[in-house]
Write a structure and sequence with these properties.
About 25% of the residues lie in helices and about 20% in strands. By secondary structure, the protein is of the alpha/beta class. A five-stranded parallel sheet has the order 10-19-11-12-15. A hairpin with a 2-residue loop joins strand 16 and strand 17. The chain is globular.
């Protein structure tokens, strides 16, 4: 097993100080290593997640070679037999079969117009944000409202910082509804087990942003409207920055309404399930929006608004260019069926919706791994044609 950095690197070094899981601890079910703590309904914080991943490695004495960065993977031949050759920072390796388990969040994305920020403005990607105290005094512009953006904006807001948030089209969901965590309801409904080929939105679901919610302080909703009432400044998506002036798309109301529509839709699905199953559950009132944008702000002078820092929460780009066999599509993303590619012996795991919604989570990766291992074992046992 080759690891370019350290085991649990991204959890340890690319998350902010108050980061925690948004799925309950009971969903942490790596193969043979289910969560065994005393808070199954809680949410592991960063240090606990690192301990969980490192504990998994130690429990099975996994043969991980850290600090070995794979620079290229190509097909080769050895004694006339097809092989794979991996060029790495520690030399060349060969293998009959290779499983690529790098995920797909490889390069932090920052827009090209970052150079138009006012001179002296601190700007960093969400993967480099640590805490409010690490930023200089002044207001902070957070760009993006997916899980990272919404949670970082809340982190700054709770610390008393003046926050300006450019709101994207991410959906949201309730943390708890009708007496249970929403994840429990969705699990009972089978949402984490729906194969992508059976999903009604299978053509778009892999590219959709996850719902924003938080496990912080025991878990709660993230309601951007409520934070606006408390003083956070909300805008539509940031489209550009020119000479220190930010321009925003007039889509704030649209995006807030859309996020709330998803929130309500999930709750209605749970209501229908409760009624159909005859479950006794407390009744909850429908969500009532506590704030509406009166106008759509088109532009903002960042310096004049006291903004001294910008945190870019606009995602990551994938980079599979080092994978040389012909398994990438026109976008450079792996073509596969449940992780099995058209190149015999080459597999992928840990990609969003590799098979189900759980594929990119602690809860579903074990099932995907088992499926791939079955193919590996079959390939090993297959007679070699001569």
């Amino acid at each position: 097993m080759l690891e370019g950095r350290r085991v649990a690197h991204s959890w340890r070094d690319e998350r902010w100080d108050t980061f925690c899981l948004v799925t309950p601890n009971w969903q942490c079910t790596l193969p043979g290593y289910a969560y065994a703590g005393d808070d199954p309904m809680g949410f592991m914080v960063k240090e606990q997640i690192v301990e969980y991943v490192e504990g998994y490695r130690a429990a099975f004495d996994l043969p991980v070679r850290e600090g070995v960065l794979v620079e290229a993977l190509k097909e080769s031949t050895e004694a006339g037999m097809p092989r794979f050759e991996l060029s790495t920072s520690q030399g060349t390796f060969t293998a009959d079969q290779v499983v690529v388990a790098t995920g797909c969040y490889h390069k932090a994305f920052v827009p090209s117009y970052v150079g138009e920020l006012p001179e002296g403005t601190v700007n960093l990607h969400s993967s480099n944000y640590k805490n409010p105290e690490s930023l200089p005094p002044g207001a902070v512009l957070v760009v993006g409202s997916g899980q990272s953006g919404a949670q970082i904006a809340e982190d700054l807001h709770l610390a008393g910082r003046a926050v300006h948030l450019a709101v994207g089209n991410a959906p949201r969901c309730a943390r708890r509804y009708r007496g249970r965590d929403v994840v429990e309801w969705l699990d009972d409904l089978g949402y984490y087990n729906i194969p992508i080929e059976n999903h009604p939105n299978r053509e778009q679901v892999r590219d959709k942003t996850n719902h924003y919610v938080t496990g912080r302080d025991g878990g709660r909703d993230i309601d951007l409207r409520k934070m606006a009432v408390e003083g956070m400044k909300l805008y539509g998506p940031l489209s550009s920055v020119a000479a220190g002036i930010g321009s925003f798309k007039p889509e704030l109301k649209q995006n807030l309404d859309s996020a709330d529509a998803v929130y309500r839709s999930i709750n209605r699905t749970i209501d229908a399930y409760i009624e159909k199953q005859g479950i006794s559950a407390p009744i909850e009132a429908d969500y009532a929006a506590p704030w509406e944008p009166e106008t759509e702000v088109a532009t903002l002078d960042l310096a004049a608004s006291g903004i001294t820092s910008v945190v870019w929460c606009v995602g990551f780009a994938s980079d599979f260019a080092w994978v040389k066999p012909p398994v990438l599509d026109a976008r450079g993303f792996p073509r596969h069926e449940r992780g099995i590619t058209e190149t015999p012996g080459l597999y992928f795991i840990g990609l969003p919706w590799l098979h189900t919604w759980g594929s990119g989570r602690f809860s579903g990766v074990g099932r995907d791994a088992e499926y791939i291992v079955e193919h590996v074992v079959e390939a090993v046992a297959r007679p070699i044609a001569v």
